[in-house]
Specification:
This protein is mainly β. The protein is built from no helices and 11 strands.
Amino acid sequence: MGETVKVAETTELTAGQAKLVDVGGQPVALFNVAGSYYAIGDSCTHVGGSLSEGTLEGTTVICPLHGARFDITNGQVQTPPANTSVPCYRVEVDGSDIRIEVP
């Protein structure tokens, strides 16, 4: 297990919300799904749309630019036009702190 950094507090992200955070200089989309937190790279692999600004349906985020879908639990691309997955980050909650492992 690597170093983790605090990126937010649980009070900043209600269920169904996303937030753009910085992890080691990388933009990361942080999601709250019914009290479980997930983090993936923020940039869609199609043309770079911000996934933290996308629509969340369960554990799938839909890119706001062209509709590519990604599984936020593992970063896997689910539908075109993207054909490459995004990085996935390990998230831990320590009290009210949300921490993400630095790659």
